[in-house]
Amino acid sequence: MTEITAAAPTVPAQPPAGLGVEELRVHVAGLLERSRARSTALTEAVDEADLVAQHSPLMSPLVWDLAHIGSQEELWLVRDVGGREPLRPEIDGLYDAFQHSRASRVDLPLLTPPQTRSYVAEVRDKALDALERSPLAGRRLVDQAFAFGMIVQHEQQHDETMLATHQLRAGAQVLHADPPPAAGPRGPREVLIPAGRFVQGTSTEPWALDNERPAHPVALPAFVIDAYPVTNGEYAEFIAAGGYDDRRWWSEAGWKHRTEAGLVAPQFWERDGSGSWWRRRFGVLERVPADEPVVHVCFHEAAAYAAWVGKRLPTEPEWEKAARHDPATGRSRRYPWGDEEPTAVHANLGQRHLQPAPVGAYPRGASAYGVHQMLGEVWEWTSSGWEPYPGFEVFPYPEYSQVFFGGDYRVLRGGSFGTDASAIRATFRNWDHPIRRQIFSGFRCARDATPGEIGESTVGRH
Questions:
Q1: pTM for this predicted structure
Q2: Which of 54, 89, 333, 436 has its CA 20 to 30 A from that of 103?
Q3: 301/262 Cα distance (integer angstroms)
Q4: Tens-digit pLDDT profile for residues 197-208
Q5: What's the chain's average pLDDT?
Q6: Is residue 238 in a domain?
Q7: Whether residue 23 is found in the same domain as residue 119
Q8: Is residue 247 part of a domain?
Q9: Dist CA 344 CA 321 (whole Å)
């Protein structure tokens, strides 16, 4: 069994503007190498028995995720962009996420771990050949290397999924990373966002996915949003006050789920004989740190806490305005802090740390409004359902976004400590069922602004 240490990114996450074709090829190759290094580390950290095991019915075996990464890369980069014949057409159905539920994949005749490693290596060789041969222009799929960026993001998304599987597996610690930076000054608990229009989504981000498009104006009334995510200490107060037992704070669907699932605290929390809370984190049992954002809570738990404190969850447009809008210029930023790439001083991303960082740890990552830690840390539940933007167009296939619109899904924003910078932007949208909490999910609260607050926000404005 191999122990690994997470490494910080060494390649910019998104293609810098103005790159020539050869420079773009070098950039893309670096991102492909970085994503594969992470996939390899996550799968080589455990033995073959762990790779093929079903650690939770909510998750695929790790070996399935690795082969699925290769299968998608073959489909888009080898077959479509590269124009090659299928390498292993007989396995396509095994790694089609729509043909088999996660719980059933363990019973499929999957490739063995050695076969899987050989397959993904062969696919990568052919994909790099396609990268060398493609003009990276001439049709939308390859313009600005979009297909390659899509595959980089896909692999990193599955790497985060595999990281969540590691959290669910039993056994000793096998993943290691440096601790996050220390807490900083908290400042005000809330931030007022004045009424007005802003531009949501993007029409210019080269590797943005279809559900992030197109850019469109949204007008919002004034609202107040938490300056940082809800912490473990704050959430523990909700538990201590009997929040899980008080029907008043829960929606009908939330109370039904809380009762049926027997929820009493965030996933992986347990109380010792003295009443103190402990958590299991990647094989280690440790005291719950009070100043970190709470993680592994479902939408219903987040909404109940918000109701308990007299607030609500932010809508998706509210979250994005607080994260992106610059009131000084009127434009929407690429990231909360500006347009420059995420670095270690901006956000807790890329599995650099295997836990959320405490509140105030990234002052240089604050948005123009002074809202902190909106990228990285924890995926933040919003109150919005999963729907297309006005003018949405499917690209390049409906199974990425369109088939999921509607239903009971809720949107999550901002990424987590397990999200790579190449797979997150301030426009990036995630979604999941409201009962899910094996993901690295947390939240912050919002509320309508009061008339007095609205009046103060208009002083000096014309």
A1: 0.96
A2: 89
A3: 12
A4: 999 999 999 999
A5: 95
A6: no
A7: yes
A8: no
A9: 24
Q: Residue 458 in contact with residue 194, Cβ under 8 Å?
A: yes
Q: Looking at the structure, do residues 448 and 421 belong to the same domain, yes or no? A: yes
Which residues is 428 bridged to in the sheet? none
Structure-token pair, residue 19? 């790159």
Angle at CA of residue 375, ends 372 and 380, nearest 5°: 90
Task: Name the 3-class secondary structure at 451.
Answer: helix
214: domain CATH number? 3.90.1580.10
Q: Is 283 exposed, middle or buried (0-12, 13-18, 19+ CB in 10 A)?
A: middle
Please tell me whether the peptide bond between 214 and the residue prior to it is cis, using omega within 30 degrees of 0.
yes
User: In this structure, which amino acid lies at residue 7?
Assistant: A
Q: What angle do CA 62, 64, 69 make, to 5 degrees?
A: 100
How far is residue 100's CA from residue 166's CA, in Å, rounded to a whole number?
21
CATH number for the domain including 29? 1.20.120.450
Cβ–Cβ < 8 Å for 23, 31: no
Separation CA 437–CA 182 (nearest Å)? 26
Tokens at 36, concatenated: 């594969």
CB of 429 within 8 A of CB of 413?
yes
**Domain hosting residue 134, numbered range:** 4-176
Q: Show the low-confidence residues of the chain (pLDDT under 50).
A: 1-3, 6-9, 459-462
